Amino acid sequence: MGKNCNKGNRPPDICKMRVFFNGINPFAFGRKSLSILLKLSLISSESPASNMSSDADASSSSPGEHGTSVQGDQAKTQPTMKAGTEVPEPERFAQETIRDYLLENVEEFHRLHELRRKGWETSGGDTHFKKQRAAADRCNANSTQFFYTMMKTIAKDLDKATGALNLSRVEQPALLDMCVAPGGFVDVALTKTPGCHIRAMSLPVEQGGHDIKMLDAQVNVEFRDITTLASDMGVTKDDVPLNFPGPYDFLFEKVLGDNEKFDLVFCDGHVLRTHPRAEWREPREATRLTLTQTALGLEHLNNCGTMVILMHKLDSWRSFDLIHQFSKMATVKLYKHYRHHKIRSSFYLVAKNIQVDSAFAKEMIAMWKQRYKIATFGTDEEYAEMHRVTRETALVELGKFGEKYVAMGKKIWKTQADGLENAPFLKKHTKEQGKRRARE
Predict the structure, then answer these.
(1) I need a labelling partner for 302 at 20 to 30 A (CA). Which of 91, 209, 264, 421 fits?
(2) What whole-number distance in Å separates Cα of residue 293 and Cα of residue 266?
(3) How many CB atoms lie within 10 A of CB 171?
C-alpha cells in the first residue's frame, strides 16, 4: 500500500464469498506448503460435526471479509437464545488450514505450538491465568493504578515501534477512544500531541467498567456501553424482532455525528467478566463489541488516519482475515509488548495511512454493520453461516497473503514463545518431567 492517500486505488472486490479448489494456484505457496495443499485436496470439507465453542469465550472475534453475510430483511422473529449457548464452529476447516500452514513453514510458530502443548499438560498455567483474571476483575485503587501504568507503558513502546500516536503533522488533530478506561493510551497521545481533541467513551463503573485514571481532567469521558449504539450501527427499531428476548437498551439516536472525523482511533476494548449482561448477549458479545469498534472507528476516521486495534491469537483465521483486509487499504504493522503481553496471545494491529475514501473501506464498513445486525438479531444458523469459511477459501487466501502474514507474525510468535519458555509454571513443569524421566 503506497503512502499517498490521495490516489484512492480501489482494492480487490470483497464479494468473492465462495471459491473452488480448482481455482487455486499451487505455485503461490511455498514448497513446504504444497504438501499441505495436496493433503487437504483429498479431505472433504463435509467432515463430521465440528468442535463446539461459545463466542462468549472466544479470544479472537475480529470481523473479516470472508464468510457469508445474510442480506435483506429477515423475518422479524427470533428463537430465544440461552446464555452460553454453544454454536457449531464454522471456521474449523479454515483454522486447521492456517495452523498446518504455519507448522510447516514457520519455525517460530512451531516452537510456540509445542510450548502451548506443554502448557496444556500442567495445571500451573491454569492457576497463573486464573490469578490474572481475578486481579483484573478486582476494581480498586491499586489495580486501577497498575492497569493505567501498564497501558501507558504499552502505548509508549507501541509508539516507539510504529509511530502510531504521532499526530504532529495534523493541523487540528482529533482522537477517538470508545473503550478508554483507565486512560493510559489517551494520556500518552496527549503527551505526544498537546491540544489534541479527544472523544472518549467507557463502560460505566456501575456496569462493571474500569475506573478512569486519566491525568488530563479536561477530557470529558462519556460513560456508555458502545454495543448499544444501534443507530450509529445502522439499526432501526424496525430491525428488532417482535419476539426479541430482551431486555435491551439500544440507542436509536446517533451518538457520533455524520461528519465527525478523527485522525487516530483506538479499538482496544474487550468483554469484561464484571459486566452484567442480559442472557441473550452472552454467546456473541465479543463479536458485537469488535464489530462496533471497527465499523464506527473506520467510518469516522479521516482519510490517511490511523487505527490501533487490540487482537488475540494471531494464528486464528479471524486474525489472519482482518489483517489481510486492512492490508488492502492501509500500511499495516503488528506489535506485541515484550513484557506485559509476553505469555498471552494479545497483540496490536496498527493500520496507518488508511484509504478511508476508497470503495473497499466503505464496503467493509457496510459489511461489518450488517454482521452486527446478524450477531445481535440473527438466528444461530444465520450467525454460524456468517462465519463459515471453507478450507478452499483459506488456501486461496493463504496463497495471496501467506508470505506477508508470516513475515509480520514471526516476531509476535517468537515473543510469546520466549515468554512461555521462561514462565515459572512451565519451567516447573519441565523440571518435574525431567525428574520423572530420571526415575524411570
Answers:
(1) 209
(2) 8
(3) 6
- Distances in whole angstroms, Cα of residue 157 to Cα of each of 164, 194, 269, 394: 10, 19, 19, 33
> Within a 13 Å sphere around the CA of 65, how many CA atoms are in the beta-carbon half?
26
Quick: pLDDT tens for 402-439: 999 999 999 999 999 999 999 887 766 555 555 555 56
Q: pLDDT per residue over 36-89, tens digit each? A: 443 333 333 333 222 223 343 344 455 655 554 333 333 333 433 332 323 237
- Do residues 171 and 138 make contact, with C-beta atoms less than 8 angstroms apart? no
CB 231 within 8 A of CB 300: no
Query: In terms of Cα–Cα distance, which of 306, 315, 317, 336 is closest to 169?
Result: 306
Structural domains of the chain sorted by starting position, each given as residue range(s) with its CATH number in brackets: 51-432 (3.40.50.150)
Cβ(360)–Cβ(11) under 8 Å? Answer: yes
Q: At 124, which amino acid appears?
A: G
pTM over 0.85: no
Amino acid identity, position 125? G
